[in-house]
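Worked example

This section walks through a single chain of length 137. The input is the sequence exactly as stored; nothing has been trimmed or padded.
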Amino acid sequence: MATKATTKKYFEAVGRRKTAIARVRLHLGAKKNSFTINDRAMESYFPTNELSETVRDAMATSGVKESFEVTAKIQGGGPHAQAEAMRHGISRALSLFNPEFRSPLKKAGFIKRDPRSVERKKPGLKKARKSPQWSKR
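Given that input, the structure is written out below as tokens.
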């Protein structure tokens, strides 16, 4: 059963979170279950177990833990936002690979881009909402 989708060599998608942008490619074949981020191994790029689990969440949800070699180019944001951007990109690429994966990924909340970001600083205030200390005299 060779469909148009399975004849591709890789599936590419973009994931975003806050100011982090991750361009993710899922390669068919090649080295199974390997993650390369900005030409570095995932263990060196995301040293904590929490961040690497965040990246692997989408593949665990869809049940294809050891089927792809994942490469990503990430820019902007901090480590947590980059991990979530990569998870978002992997989820989008998996739904391109097999549309049946879309439903469990959507239920887990990995398909929708998280719209929350830092609120801008307003003039006259110290931060977005924090005002200077008020003195009566």
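What to look for: The CA atoms of residues 10 and 103 lie 21 Å apart.
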